[in-house]
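Submission checklist for the structure archive. All mandatory fields must be present; incomplete records are returned to the submitter.

[x] Identifier: Helix-turn-helix domain-containing protein
[x] Organism: Dyadobacter subterraneus
[x] Residue count: 49
[x] Sequence attached
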Amino acid sequence: MNQKRLEKARNLLAETDMRISEIAYLVGIESPRNLANTFSRLPDHSNRI
């Protein structure tokens, strides 16, 4: 997954009240589950998702 998309998604998660499904589609990721799984595999992931 593109690093810029992940960074944008991370910022939106931290700064907005948007749901992960909204953020996933906004940054161009078709599956919210895919975004959540990707974050959970990162070494510095947040449990907020």
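[x] Structure attached
Curator remark: The chain has three helices and no strands. Residues 24 and 35 are 6 Å apart (CA to CA).
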